[in-house]
Each structure stands twice: as C-alpha cells, then as structure tokens.
Amino acid sequence: MSMKWFSLGSIALGALLFGTVTADVAAQNSLPTVTQPTGGQVTTLTVQGGNRSLFKVALPQWRGDADAGKQGVEVASRDFVLSSMFQVLDPQSFTANLAAEGSTIDPTSWRNVGAEGVIKGETSTRSNGLHIELKLFMVSRGASAVLSKAYDVPAGGARIAVHQFVNEVIKYFTGTAGSFGTRLVFSATTGRGQKGIFTMDSDGSSLGRASVASNVALAPAIGPGGNVYYAGGLPDGGYALFKVGSNAPVLRQAGLVFGVAFGGAKMALVVSQNGMSDIFTGASDGSGMTKYTSGGLNTHPAFGPAGQLAYVSNASGNPQIYVDGKRVSSRGTYNMAPVWCNDPDGGVKILFMGRDGATWDIFSVAPDGSNMKRLTQDQGSNTYPACSPDGRVVAFFSTRNGGGIYTSNPNGMNQQKIASTTGESLRWEGN
After folding, report:
1. Which helix (H) or strand (E) holds 397?
2. If exposure means fewest CB atoms within 10 Å of the residue's CB, which of 258, 331, 349, 424 is most exposed?
3. pTM for this structure?
C-alpha cells in the first residue's frame, strides 16, 4: 500500500511518493552546515549577562540502604550529564569525611576538590517502601542546605525520587523545572511486516512494549490523560486510530488514518484517500473534524504551544515544513517530521529531519522560517527528533555506533547515547 509512508516514516518509500530532485536544485537549496563537529562536549552554559562554566556538582554516596543509594547516585549523575548544565565530579577525588559530616557538609573539604554544589541523600525503610531525603548544598553558602525534599516511593523506586529532585535542582538554578522522569514513545519493527509501540524513560531506562490491538501499530502520540494513541491496521486492510490498552478503534474516518497529533483541546489527524493525504483538525475527542489541507501529500502534524500547527506538505513540489499554511523550511529538498521545542533562551523553535545527500540530519528553524541551524553532521543518519518539555534536551534516532537513541542539548552539543533501540516517530511526553 503506497500510502504507508505517512506513519511508517519509510524514508525510501517517501522519496518515491514525493519524487526526486535534480543535483542543480539540491545545490541551490542546500541545508546549512557547521564548521565545527556537532555533538562535542559542553563546557559553558548561557546565563544572564553572558556565559559561565558548567556547575560542578559532587554526588557522594547516600546514607542508609546501600543498593538504593547506589542507584540514586547513578541516576542523578546520568540526569545531570544529560542536562548539559552540570559537570559531575569524580567521586575518587572526594576528601570529605562523610561519616563525620552526616547530613550536612564541611564546605572547605568540598571547595578543595572544586565542588560548587553537593547533593546528599539518605534513605530509610518504611512499611510501604522507601523514604528518601535529598538535599542540595551550595558550597559558597555554608553548611546549610539550600534545597531539601523528601519522597516516599515503592521499594526499588529511588529512580523516581531522583528524577523529581534533579528537576527541582534545575528549577532552583533556572526557574523552570527539568523534564526527567517523563516518557519517550515510538514505533519499531517487531517482525516481518509488523510494528509495535514502545515506551521508555527519558534517560533510556525502563524500555517496555505497549499492549496494542494491531500487529501494525504506527505513529504514536501522547494525548489526553497521558494515553498513547496510534494508527493501527485493521483486518480489512484499513487503518484507524487506536488507544493503547483498548482493542476497539477510538476513531475511524473515510479513508485510512495514518497519524495523529494532540495539542491542548485539539486533535490533528492524517487521512489518506484517493491517492492524497490531508490533515483534519477538530476536538481532542475526535468530534468536529474538518479538513485543514486540500490535496497533495500532507503529513506529520504537530501542535505548537500557542495552537499553531506545523506539518509536512509537498505543496511547493518537494516535502517541506509548513506552519499554519506558510512554508518555513526555505532550504533543503526533503524535510519532514517537525516537532516544536521550547527554547530555554526564550521563544520556541521547530526541530525537523532533513535529507542531506544520502543521509538524514537534525535541524532547527524559527516558526517564521528564520535562523535555520544544524544539530547533527557527519555522524550517520539522524532522524525523528523529539524535544523535552523544558526544551533543554533533544532526542533522536541515529545509525552511528550500531544505532540507537541519542540526546543532545538544543544546539546539538553533548550528544549521548541513551539506548540501543531504533525506530520511528519518536515523541516526548509533555511536548
């Protein structure tokens, strides 16, 4: 079925649908490049009035349950690295007498190893699980904690508390909480001609396969109530909209449903009919659906924070990114899979994947089409970007190093492999 491109994200088949471009046209519309390699280590962060070095944080072992403490330190270290805001110090360098310090700190001991902040944890067993207390100390402010939180979690649930505390630490410094503990959702091949829906924690842990009603489940999106929706194949060869955990379609349209997006109280649906695909919009419950585009091939809808709708269309001849009917990708001959991203420095931008020769890379552009930038280059094919709700972390699939899911900061730096699984249609919960 030729229209399967719309939710499978099959790049090769998509090229056949949208056609090819000549070398001369491609040269005239080439995508931006960078002179320095992408993905390098972040050494500074932008603050009011300029830049400063990454905040140096020490994560000593917790008091209490050793296993919970080990997991907690590992999870916190990973979160801080992925945030691109902190430098986690080597515990082998620590000279502080942890037993003597107890639940506070000796600022001099930590200052001597270069720490600007210290995070301490302590666990105790409760009848229903673990009680975890976490504290942030600023070495320059003495022995009293500047941030203290307590959490009650199930046994083995230290990861939950740590994600929440790291988000609070990020909020303490920036005013906006981090996004750790949220989910990534995507589709992936499960067998010949079969696709499934998968979720994982945003740090790459807890990979799980969702329960779906179809052996071809495509283009997942997180909708009302945190439910995961997807386009699923039907026994009669059609495609309809399903919700994970439900065996019956939640929405059928005349034609084939190949994708969905949610934004606030709105829904956007991709429907293929008579060799065309159009986007329909309406309420998030599927009521009041009206045709948004008219003819051609229109796919990959994504709602912005103010209700704007980004999508892919071949209205200009080749697939390009559009926002509310206006083309915003002025360069490149094959651009797709847009997603909105809050800019930590203010405003929003759109991430997308663009074909560059024989490979694909990740780019960003302002909603008015200005300031197009490249996030990946010369590191395999990089596809299907997703952005964390706070806008500080970008996730995407990459073929490098055996393939997997990578993250970076919004400028393409600090690229880290978080999982070895590959797939399509990556989405980030909360965005």
Report:
1. strand 394-398
2. 331
3. 0.89
Beta bridge partners of 323: 310, 326
SS3 429: coil
Convert the pLDDT of each residue in 311-325 to its tens digit: 999 998 999 999 999
The CA-atom distances, in angstroms, between 404 and each of 15, 271, 410 are 23, 30, 19
| Burial status of residue 209 (CB atoms within 10 A of its CB: 0-12, 13-18, 19 or more) | exposed
Q: What pLDDT is recorded for position 42?
A: 52
Residue 224 sits in the same domain as residue 100: no
Q: Which two tokens stand for residue 62?
A: 């917790």
Answer yes or no: do 221 and 120 share one domain: no
d(CA 389, CA 143): 33
| CATH code for the domain of 256 | 2.120.10.30
Nearest of 330, 298, 335, 291 to residue 314 by alpha carbon: 298
Phi, psi angles (nearest 5°) of residue 359: -125, 175
Q: What are phi and psi of 172, to 5 degrees?
A: -60, -40
Nearest to 117 by CA among 157, 175, 76, 158: 76
37 within a domain of the structure (yes/no): no
Closest CA to 411 of 36, 38, 32: 38
Amino acid at 216: V
328 neighbors 322 (Cβ within 8 angstroms):
yes
Q: 66 CB contacts (<8 Å, ≥6 apart)?
A: none
Structural domain of residue 67, as residue ranges?
51-174
Domain boundary among 155, 174, 193: 174
Which residue type does 135 have? K
In this predicted model, what pLDDT tens digit does every residue of 324-367 receive, in sequence order? Answer: 999 999 888 899 999 999 988 889 999 999 998 889 999 999 99
Mean pLDDT across 194-212: 96
Beta-sheet pairing, 335-342 with 326-327: unpaired
CA nearest neighbour of 67 among 1, 156, 6, 190: 156
Interstrand relation of 217-222 and 309-313 (parallel, antiparallel or unpaired) = unpaired
